[in-house]
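Archive maintenance. Older records in this collection stored only the sequence; we are now back-filling the structure field for every entry so that each record is complete. The fields below show one back-filled record exactly as it appears after the update. Entries are processed alphabetically, and Olfactory receptor is next in the queue.

ARCHIVE ENTRY
Title: Olfactory receptor
Organism field: Enhydra lutris kenyoni
Length field: 325
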Amino acid sequence: MSSWPESNWTAAREFVILGFSGWPQGLRLLLFAFLLPLYLATLAGNLLILGLAILEPALRTPMYFFLGALSTVEVAYTLVLTPHMLAGFLLPRGGQVVARATCAAQMGLFVALGGSECLLLAAMALDRYLAICRPLSYTQLMTTGLCWCLLASCCAGGSILALGLTTAIFQLPFCRGGLVNHVFCDLPAVLVLACGNRQLQERVLLAACLLLLVLPLALILLSYTRVLVVILGVGGPAGRRKAFNTVASHLTVAVLHYGCATAMYARPLSSRDLEEDKLVSLIYISLTPLLYPAIYTLRNRDVQGALQRAVSGRTPGTVHQADIN
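Back-filled structure field:
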């Protein structure tokens, strides 16, 4: 419960996103100059993967369908968060004023896209499990219709969770003003401004973390453990190496995503330091989305070959499959 009297509780009409407005201007400009190229590279890398997955016939497989979907989510995620963060580095001290509806929309989109990505990574793990552990029935199981159903389920799950969390938080009154000590309207940064009994909202947030982080990660680790056992037991050295590279790429992305998200959100409000959270947010907003296309393209011969053909204008020849058929 809040120690503020109920007469000071208010339904804030606007919020001020403080970001790094308290830092020296020279340091903020330096961060802007460093993060802007990362932002542009993130957009370019993910749009490149999406374009190749759509246009390249050799990549019209379930694995690259999900990879293209993941790149689409990353582009949307980056567009929702990064421009506002970069603009904050150039504005005068005092932060950015946003309307209550804008803050709620930003939070909702962030949760929807992040939740969809969590579920999508689990769907990608299922695809690799079926491709490597059930190769004879893979084409019958992983049909185009199933791929679209899995994608729709991931997006619907993330959106429903986002709607529930955002509605639960913005139903609370706010007694600490609208100063959001973060680079965007993140859930914990807004929730700490609320008054009254917010235990229900905290429990809902922790339950969402369990649903979107712990359970999918456990399924991913179990799937890839089984995949690695199969890889080590069948096929020749070349086939094992190709399959292992594919699994290693997917597992690296999953560990990065779930690791950052768990460190940020699977904690009670009482143990948080919002200044530290702001610094960590620079990693998962600017660096992690950039690593995804780098990991997939550098370790994947299919994507490299498709990119070379796109640059040279050649038609695809022999396709080097990254999985064991």
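Update note: The chain has one domain: 14-303. The domain at 14-303 is CATH 1.20.1070.10 (Rhopdopsin 7-helix transmembrane proteins).
Entry marked complete.
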